[in-house]
Write a structure and sequence with these properties.
- By secondary structure, this protein is α+β, with helices and mostly antiparallel strands.
- It folds into 2 domains: 63 residues, no CATH class; 45 residues, no CATH class.
- Helix content is 13%, strand content 19%.
- It is built from 3 helices and 8 strands, in the order H-E-E-H-E-E-E-E-E-E-H.
- It has a 4-stranded antiparallel beta sheet. Strands 3-4 form a two-stranded antiparallel sheet. Strands 5-6 form a two-stranded antiparallel sheet.
- The chain starts with a helix and ends in a 5-residue tail after the last helix.
- The structure holds zinc ion.
- The site of zinc ion has 7 residues, from helix 2.
Amino acid sequence: MANEFYKTGDAPDFYICSKCKRKHVKLWRPEGSSTPLICATCAERIQVKREYDEIFPYGFEGQSYQPERTGRRIEAPLWYVDKDGLIPLSRFTPGPDGKFPMTDKLEVDGKGYYSAIYPAIPDDDGMYCCYEKLPEDGCTWWRELPTHK
Ligand SMILES: [Zn+2]
């Protein structure tokens, strides 16, 4: 039986950010744990800064993409979670279009307890769906929750 709130768009009572107590927003959790639940706004404040290799802005045409590195390291801009719950995957060199691939896994400073948080999508047993096997309707429900509020 699928979760009723997947259909209604509501969030269960326990679905509250552990840090700022925001309700009815997308939440993330450390892998294998149901706490803490963290909203996008709180995750942005504890994000891990990343550097990447600077590449020359040419060589993006043709079939084979051969990025040429300048040898400089660049600090990736701070990320903000978008409306779909995604951030740029900033630990990699940008793709041929100059953009970073996107991910819903957020790299944060969990003070040694966790280093990444994943979409927290409640299942029917009061637990959370495994990141590797997220149900389609659960993902839709999560994506449609506001990211910021
Ligand atoms: Zn929060």
